[in-house]
Amino acid sequence: MILTSHYLKPQLRQWLKAPAQALVNRGISANQLTWAAAGGSLVVGLLLALLHQTAWLFWLLPVWLLLRLALDVLDGLMAQDFMQESAEGAYWAEAGALAADAALWLPMTWLAGAFPVGVLIWLGAVCESVGLLGKVHGFHGRREDGPMARGDRMVVLAVLAVWYAVAGNLNWAAQLLVWLAVAATAYTCWVRMQNGLRGYGAAQTAAVTDDNDNE
User: Fold this and answer.
1) Looking at the chain, which terminus has fewer C-beta neighbours within 10 angstroms, N or C?
2) What pLDDT is recorded for position 10?
3) Cβ contacts of residue 13 below 8 Å, gap of 6+?
4) Where is the chain membrane-spanning (predicted)?
5) What does the alpha-carbon distance between residue 90 and residue 34 come to, in Å, rounded to a whole number?
6) Class of residue 171 by CB neighbours under 10 A (exposed 0-12, middle 13-18, buried 19+)
7) What's the pLDDT score for residue 12?
8) What CA–CA distance (Å, rounded) separates 40 from 103?
9) Residue 150, Cα to own-chain centre: how many angstroms?
10) Residue 7: which of 190, 205, 146 has the closest Cα?
């Protein structure tokens, strides 16, 4: 997919630098934005799960997804550009994002099939964990390879939400879309693992070469 957070984030970072500075000046921290994004996602997900028969309410979902993306970008800007990075913040960001992903997909278990949506939630968590291991073993930072990264899954979710809000129901084609997302997410896990291991191998080779040169 083309319209994902991976492509939107660089542009959003430019647009949101001034708001990030304003938030820092007001004493708001990156962690507070992390909590707001996670908490808001839990509220939206649970609300729509409880009221999943009210189709028009699902217009709220794509709006919130855009706001969540903005909060995520602001969080990153404040952490990196205003020296607010911390181990605590990293833990909150990872745990909060996984909880938010699951909560936002929860309403779809009633609308697009509990089993395929459940598999997608689970595979999404696995995929993000594999990507995170790039920091540990890949020496090239977190892996965010596609074709079905977190941003792509959120685009699929937004499409389903708008579909339901307009049509009032989701048919077999919606379930097929979820299954396609499941397959693409599984493939993404494999791609991230292979690229991470490739990066690890390259780093090991470079380290051995440096040692030999020093000798």
Assistant:
1) C
2) 78
3) 73, 76, 77
4) 33-51, 114-133, 154-170
5) 10
6) exposed
7) 82
8) 10
9) 4
10) 146
Long-range own/partner contacts, residues 194-200 (CB < 8 A, 24 or more apart): 195/134, 195/138, 195/143, 195/145, 196/130, 196/131, 196/133, 196/134, 196/137, 196/138, 196/140, 196/143, 197/137, 197/138, 199/134, 199/138, 199/139, 199/140, 200/137, 200/138, 200/139
State mean pLDDT over 89-115.
96
Q: Is the pLDDT of residue 59 over 50?
A: yes
d(Cα 153, Cα 100) in Å, to the nearest integer?
Answer: 13
pLDDT in tens, 183-202: 999 999 999 998 888 876 66
pLDDT at 9: 73
CA angle at 41 for the pair 102 and 56, rounded to the nearest 5°:
100
* pTM reported for the whole predicted model: 0.89
Q: Identity (one letter) of the amino acid at 107?
A: P
Which amino acid is residue 145, in one-letter code? D
The amino acid at residue 211 is D
Domain ranges of the chain: 5-202
According to the CATH classification, is domain 5-202 in 1.10.10.10? Answer: no
Identify which of 95, 90, 35 has the alpha carbon closest to the alpha carbon of residue 68: 35
